[in-house]
Specification:
Layout: H1 3-9, H2 56-68, E1 73-77, H3 80-91, E2 97-101, H4 106-116, E3 122-126, H5 131-136, E4 142-148, H6 160-169, E5 173-177, H7 182-185, E6 195-199, E7 213-217, H8 220-233, H9 239-249, H10 252-271, E8 276-280, H11 290-296, E9 303-308, H12 311-321, E10 326-327, E11 337-339, H13 351-357, E12 363-367, H14 373-393
Parallel strand pairs: 2-3, 2-4, 4-5, 5-6, 10-11
Antiparallel strand pairs: 1-7, 6-7, 8-9, 9-12, 11-12
Helix pairs in contact: 1-2, 2-9, 3-4, 3-8, 10-14, 12-14
Length: 397
């Protein structure tokens, strides 16, 4: 089956032969526990026991998630960070070292620096587009290379195939956060990486109404460790959350096409404005990652970042004039959002750390929704005109 067909049908096949009701949509199983047959005490149990350990609705979602990433296995979690925490706690030990892309979601950096560091896990943030920088940061105890592509919030694109191949020459696992691209535009396991993580809150759910995360892999040993800790740690999604995520996934393909088409138009418009210093979007021919993105992705995604002129006051003037783009964290929903990384998603980093990566106080990240693109551009034009007006009325020193 092709992508859209899998997104709709896998995990939700009507069960008539097995005594089921023939549900066309996977039913929600809210039960926390399941009745057991009386058996010999020395016989192993089978079937469902307790919903933290396994639930039919979650199983349906996991089957669908695996199909989307062309993976053998998928595990669903209560959030993207719960998924990431389970990956790291399952596969890293005290004294281990991780190499991570320097441009990384603030929550992931917080997990690494505040949650893992006390357990003796160290992290080096490097420019993964520079092979020498990557190689020079590998240590004897390096166990994992962690990257996003495209990255959050600067939309950098890294060569997943090359990084995965290098990792495997050193016996290192490669983990890719594929949230920004979604499985529709990019499938990293096919490029050689070992583990894919997602915040399913974003494009997979797609409607800003359910928080969740996922891990996909085709490595049985890795899966066994993750599956154990999914149960042992217990950060699993509710059956209703699984249902909402499955419902969102069914329209993923058509949503991503619209997200990407709108984002391309928005990026081109922002690039043409005199009030914008720089636009970050891999779909622009001027972007240094454009050719790699063309080879590695089947579409450029719905995220755009832009560095505005006019300082922080100019940013405030721009934001205050917007009527469609909503100032809010998160991304990937059908509605358009704008985020100020320095004070929102990446506020946990120091000012020096942000500037070293390239996150300025005048950077904005746009999650471009699927509204009529003319309305979105008119909204941006309204904001930029207010920024320009603000700049013109500023007193001269």
């Amino acid at each position: 089956m092709r992508f859209s067909t899998r997104a709709i049908h896998v995990g939700e096949e009507p069960d008539l032969e097995g005594g089921g009701n023939g549900d066309v949509v996977a039913p929600i199983h809210p039960s926390t526990t399941f009745a057991r047959k009386v058996r010999e005490v020395d016989k192993p149990s089978s079937g469902y026991e307790y919903s933290r350990t396994g639930n039919p609705t979650r199983d349906a979602l996991e089957k669908k998630l695996a199909a989307l990433e062309d993976a053998k296995y998928a595990l669903a979690f209560s959030s993207g960070l719960a998924a990431e925490a389970t990956v790291t706690l399952s596969l890293l030990r005290a004294g281990d070292h991780v190499v991570a892309s320097e441009d990384l979601y603030g929550g992931t950096r917080r997990l690494f620096s505040r949650s893992l560091a006390p357990f003796g896990v160290s992290v080096s943030y490097v420019d993964l587009s520079d092979p020498d920088d990557l190689k020079s940061n590998i240590r004897e105890k390096t166990r994992m290379i962690w990257l996003e592509s495209p990255t959050n919030p600067l939309l950098r694109v890294y060569d997943i195939k090359a990084i995965s191949e290098f990792a495997h020459t050193r016996g290192i696992l490669c983990v890719v956060d594929n949230t920004f691209a979604s499985p529709y535009f990019q499938r990293p396991l096919g490029m050689g990486c070992d583990i894919v993580v997602h915040s399913t809150t974003k494009y997979l759910g797609g409607h800003s109404d359910v928080v969740g995360g996922a891990v996909m892999t085709s490595n049985e040993e890795v899966y066994s460790k993750l599956r154990f800790n999914q149960n042992a740690i217990g950060a699993v999604p509710s059956p209703f959350d699984c249902f909402l995520t499955m419902r969102g996934i069914k329209t993923l393909a058509i949503r991503m096409e619209k997200h990407a088409a709108n984002a391309q138009r928005v990026a081109e418009y922002l690039e043409s404005s005199r009030q914008v210093n720089r636009v970050f979007y891999p779909g622009l021919p001027s972007n240094p990652h454009h050719e790699l993105a063309r080879r590695q992705m089947s579409g450029f995604g719905g995220m755009v970042s832009a560095d505005l002129k006019g300082g922080v006051k100019g940013v405030n003037a721009f934001l205050s004039a917007l009527k469609i783009f909503t100032l809010a964290e998160s991304l990937g929903g059908v509605e358009s959002l704008v985020d100020h990384p320095a004070t929102m998603t990446h506020a946990g980093m120091s000012g020096e750390e942000r500037l070293a990566v390239g996150i300025t106080d005048t950077l904005l990240r746009f999650s471009v929704g699927i509204e009529d693109v003319e309305d979105l551009i008119e909204d941006l034009e309204r904001g930029l005109k207010n920024l320009e007006h603000h700049a013109a009325t500023m007193p001269m020193n």
